Amino acid sequence: MARKGIVYVIDDDQAMRESIDFLLTSADYEVRLFETAASFLEASGSIAFGCVLSDVRMPGIDGLDLLKRLKAGRSRLPVVIMTGHGDVPLAVEAMKLGAIDFIEKPFDDDRLIGLIETAIKQAGDEAKSEALSQDIVARIQSLSPRERQVMDGLIAGMSNKVIAREFDISPRTIEVYRANVMTKMQASSLSELVRMAMRGGVIKD
């Protein structure tokens, strides 16, 4: 795979596809070309993470329809839409449907490369962030009912002794539960445990 990532180019204009292919390959991207949105969607179930660069006006499934279908399928692929001059209303609609950005043809090469670079980075960061949140939720769910009670006490600012009185358990036993909580949550400190609880939805904003 190319160092900077993969770009899926969808455009019914062969000359435009070839031009973008040359530009992005020169910029160290792996480029995959599609003449229609339909052919891209057929392949989308097995493709790796990358940026979609799609024209907005195409026969059959156009750029807006493509965005709607990707959104319905909960796709994580960032999409940059290419529009013709005067297609700003369509571009705005595309942004509402989830496009990261749009660029008007004819476009500046450096601007296009910059947009794709930003799109891949932002979407990659969001995907990592969501994966971490899901992992934290799974850690919380792995706690036993008593461990969860102890965690709730800890993030509420209660001391071991107060938690022990609350549940009529010895402070020593609470220490054991506390150690289990920190281990299962992979938290190295109480402040980290609090941050995890916030991210995992235990503490509401």
From TrEMBL:
Keywords: DNA-binding, Phosphoprotein, Transcription, Transcription regulation. Transmembrane segments: none annotated. Residues 136-201 form the HTH luxR-type domain. The modification 4-aspartylphosphate is found at residue 55. Residues 6-120 form the Response regulatory domain. It comes from the Bacteria. Pfam families: GerE, Response_reg. The keyword Phosphoprotein applies. This is Response regulator FixJ. It comes from Rhodopseudomonas telluris.
